[in-house]
Amino acid sequence: MDKMNHSSAEAEAETIEPLRYLSKGEMSAIETELLRDYRFGQQQLIEIWGQACALAITRAYPLSSLAKKQPTVLVICGPDQNGSIGLVCARHLRIFEYEPTIYHPKRSSHNLHQDFTVQCEKMDIPFLSYLPTEVQLINDAYNLVIDAMLGPEADCANIKEPYSGILVTLKQVKIPIVSVDVPSGWDVEEPSQDGINPDVLISLTAPKKCAMSFSGKHFLAGRFLPYDIQKKYELNLPEYPGTDCLIEL
């Protein structure tokens, strides 16, 4: 009997399909479907993703593990959706008793982005007016950096200021970097040539093709996805433990 069970378990293990890594087109199609057919709101998705990012950070860097006396975190936000996710992440980190500071050099005129910015300001989260180019100042002031800068929508072959300069600084910092969805400077579909090298990556919805070459700590936040979408795109998402909204891959 044991032998039969063993062989059926082996057969089951063999039929588990590998996790799907998305191309830019697939990623965009899933998001469009969530917004148009499933009636998710943009604000709702950004809130889900931002909260999941904050939870992943608490998992990777619990308050008790931080090297500095103050639980300081620097969140660098870009002008597009990844930047909005960074703002939500910062707000949740504040609720979880971290001390985030936001650097947001080019604010978007998009209403949602402005709403998320106001929410952070109302939580008394400070905003930096400039990023020190002296890397040691960043190393000394913060425990880690959250990279919510360029994300999957950016053209990594054509990164303009101020982001190209920020990338140069981030490549030199010694404290850990956590990237949201796609590390800044990486192409969605290719391993990094010239981007930063984060310690932690938080993939949203499903991992992107570039993450196949990522060797650091990798979290996935995609439990909210409707089952029919998971099936249609053959995402083969892992089993999330208990009631967790994210999993370490």
UniProtKB/TrEMBL annotation:
Taxonomic superkingdom: Eukaryota
Gene3D superfamilies recorded: YjeF N-terminal domain
GO terms (BP aspect): hematopoietic stem cell proliferation; membrane raft distribution; negative regulation of angiogenesis; regulation of cholesterol efflux; regulation of Notch signaling pathway; sprouting angiogenesis
InterPro entries linked: YjeF_N_dom, YjeF_N_dom_sf, YJEFN_prot_NAXE-like
PROSITE patterns (alphabetical): YJEF_N
Molecular functions per Gene Ontology: NAD(P)HX epimerase activity
UniProt feature coiled coil, ranges: none
Domain (YjeF N-terminal) ranges: 27-237
SUPFAM superfamilies, A to Z: YjeF N-terminal domain-like
Cellular component GO terms held in the UniProt record: mitochondrion
Protein known as: ApoA-I-binding protein 2
